[in-house]
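Changelog-adjacent note: as of this version, every example in the card shows the full chain rather than a window. The one below runs 150 residues end to end.
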Amino acid sequence: MLLAASAISAAAAAHTIEGRVVGVADGDTVTVLDALHAQHRIRLAGIDAPEKAQAFGDASKRHLSRMVYGEHVRVEYAKRDRYGRIVGKIFSAGRDASLEQLRAGLAWHYKQYQREQSREDRGAYAKVEREAQQAQAGLWRNPDPVAPWT
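Full-length structure tokens:
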């Protein structure tokens, strides 16, 4: 019974924003302008991209920009981070931007927060990250890539 109640309250906490991406700060943070002209700072859920000064930081930002900048997106979220940013999944043209960053080898699956993901997302993100590693895509070309949280 408690499990059912927590699932219901988690579903009730989910929110959606739709708008146009008007800024890309780095490989995991964008700004979305909604229909009421309010700006929302969005941190992509489930991933952590290299910082600007790190190897592949610029490539990660460029890849995300090509995918979402100027595009109409849908953001699904249930929380904010300690900086007040919305932490959510961004969908552009039906594609999960976080998953695409992982597929390109331009982000890490942020396993520290994987318990906040659905079982399906957790499995998909881990699988795509492994495939990028095996293909030596993006940052996985380096023998020992340094994660931003290190």
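Structural remarks: Confidence is low (pLDDT under 50) at residues 1-13.
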